[in-house]
Design goal:
The complex is a heterodimer of chains A (271) and B (229). Chain A is an alpha/beta fold and 271 residues long. Chain A folds into two domains: 123 residues, Periplasmic binding protein-like II (D-Maltodextrin-Binding Protein, domain 2, 3-Layer(aba) Sandwich); 96 residues, 3-Layer(aba) Sandwich (D-Maltodextrin-Binding Protein, domain 2). Chain A has ten helices and eleven strands. In chain A, the strands form two sheets. In chain A, strands 2-1-3-10-4-11 form a six-stranded mixed beta sheet. Chain B is built from ten helices and no strands. In chain B, helix 1 crosses helix 9 and helix 9 runs antiparallel to helix 10. Chain B is globular, with a radius of gyration of 20 Å. Classes of the chains: A alpha/beta (271), B mainly alpha (229).
Chain lengths: 271, 229
């Protein structure tokens, strides 16, 4: 009987802690609704494709000057991972994807506010090698012995991986790199592999190559080898701060954000 | 089936190879430390147990530092024209490193339980140290050693974080079952992911049951033989 009582107490204390943790989350929205609208602090969670990291950090600082009461929390990852998180109910306000495929999937499931969706950036894919490498000069070299390992994004969840696969297929090189390809979970991981020399070459975005001084671009995806790379953005329907989310996304679409994105090598799409 | 079953073979090869490696390394370390009476015993023991206590990403980070292009061993390998990062041997290195503490700790505990008088008696009879170890100490410590081997195998089979960092995700070469599960789930292929989950569950369960039954059978026989003697 003693043992049973002890076990019950342990289980009960776990339940109490667990419910307290859950209760905390539920308590917040009510509290903010009762507070004064104008000066209430707002917390926005923005899930953004990994390639946007540098630009978005700079935008966060600029936006803090415009709207000091808005605190932005970034969640960077491959667009595929981010899409899955949102589908599984993650508490996200804004989603910035590196490909339309993931945004389409969310739209089909009715998870985005459709009139906030817009392609706002364009990017290009490039072939990069470590800074001090000299033998590789073109995509064609990937099929030769000069390249023992090539870093690519995992095609099913990483847009850059999907684009890379498209380029390689159109150049007739896809089969020759099988067995040499190491698949990463996001484009920044692939970039790091090239920077550290753990792979001989990698396919990343032009914007990633620009921010790194440890890699150099040896070739750009030839015209016609890959479909245009558009980055769509949208507000998530289940957002608890729709107005603030819309304000943020309109900022991204505005002339104020344009110079930041262009600084990092993105092509800004006007209205 | 049409589905790529290579993760199954890769995981099996890696887990078996890692178990063999950890078995001998773990036994050696356990034997050395069980007999060691120096002051650094505690520190050495902590260092050897660390890979189990630290998050696999920390283990992966250190392995990357050592075996990567710019690391001591990595640079040596590079000068010989090869690299171990993103190759199958890297899966064995990662799995062995995280499984080692399990083998080492269990074996050491088993060794320390062996009645020292039996060893002393053997020494007075002139038996060599090597023979003492393999014909007296190991058989007496066997239940603990076998348990260590089982634990090592299952830990090696389930290794993910460090493996991903130094072996990467190369289908057909380094994509183990845990890695396949991660990437198929991330890519939305839930059916495939579930298949691998079920498969690894079945394999782990079968291996553990088999080894437990074999161990039980062994110790039962030993007892009977002892009573008969």
């Amino acid at each position: 009987m003693r043992k049973f009582k002890r076990a019950m107490m342990v289980i009960a204390s776990f339940l109490i802690v667990f419910m307290a943790a859950c209760g905390q989350k539920g308590a917040q929205p009510k509290a903010t609704q009762e507070a004064v609208k104008e000066i209430k602090p707002v917390s926005l969670t923005v899930s953004a494709a990994a390639s946007l990291k540098n630009a978005m950090e700079e935008i966060k600082t600029a936006y803090a000057n415009e709207k000091p009461n808005v605190e932005i929390t970034y969640n960077f990852g491959s667009s595929g991972s981010l899409q899955r998180q949102i589908e599984e109910g993650a508490d996200v306000d804004v989603f910035l994807s590196a490909a339309t495929k993931q945004m389409d999937a969310l739209e089909d499931k009715g998870l985005i506010i459709e009139d906030t969706r817009k392609n706002f950036l364009e990017n290009k894919v490039v072939l990069v090698v470590p800074e001090n490498s000299s033998e590789i000069i073109d995509f064609k070299d990937l099929s030769t012995d000069k390249v023992k390992k090539v870093g690519l994004g995992e095609p099913k969840s990483v847009p850059c991986g999907e684009y890379a696969e498209e380029v390689l297929t159109n150049l007739g090189l896809l089969d020759s790199i099988k067995g040499k390809a190491v698949y990463g979970k996001d484009v920044k991981e692939v970039l790091t592999w090239v920077e550290t020399g753990n792979v001989d070459a990698g396919i990343v975005y032009e914007t990633d190559a620009k921010v790194s001084d440890k890699v150099k671009i040896v070739a750009r995806a030839p015209k016609g080898s890959v479909s245009p790379i558009y980055y769509p953005a949208a507000v998530i329907k289940t957002s608890e701060n729709v107005d603030d989310a819309k304000a943020f996304i309109n900022y991204l679409y505005s002339g104020k954000a344009k110079p930041v994105f262009e600084k990092y090598g993105f092509i800004f799409i006007e209205k | 089936m049409g589905m790529d079953l290579s993760p199954l073979w890769i995981s099996a090869k890696t887990a078996f190879a890692a178990t063999v490696v950890t078995f001998f390394l773990g036994l050696a370390a356990a034997w050395l430390l069980a007999g060691y009476r120096g002051k650094a015993k505690g520190i050495i023991d902590s260092v050897l147990t660390l890979p189990m206590a630290l998050p696999p990403t920390v283990v992966g980070f250190f392995l990357l530092l050592v075996f990567g292009r710019n690391g001591p061993i990595g640079r040596l390998l590079y000068s010989l024209g090869t690299q171990v990062i993103f190759s199958w041997p890297a899966t064995v290195i990662a799995a062995s490193t995280v499984a080692f503490p399990l083998m080492y700790k269990t074996a050491r505990g088993a060794f320390e339980q062996v009645d020292k008088n039996l060893i002393y008696a053997a020494r007075t009879l002139g038996v060599s140290e090597w023979k003492i170890f393999w014909r007296i100490t190991v058989p007496l410590a066997w239940p603990g050693i076998a348990a260590g081997a089982v634990l090592s195998f299952t830990r090696a089979l389930g290794e993910f974080g460090a493996t991903l960092m130094i072996a990467g995700n190369i289908p057909g070469k380094t994509q183990t079952i845990p890695i396949a599960i991660f990437f198929t789930a991330e890519g939305g292929e839930m059916g495939k992911a579930l298949l691998w989950v079920v498969l690894i569950f079945v394999i782990s369960f079968m291996m553990m049951s088999l080894m437990n039954y074999w161990n039980y059978y062994q110790s039962k026989n030993a007892r009977i033989a002892g009573e008969g003697g």
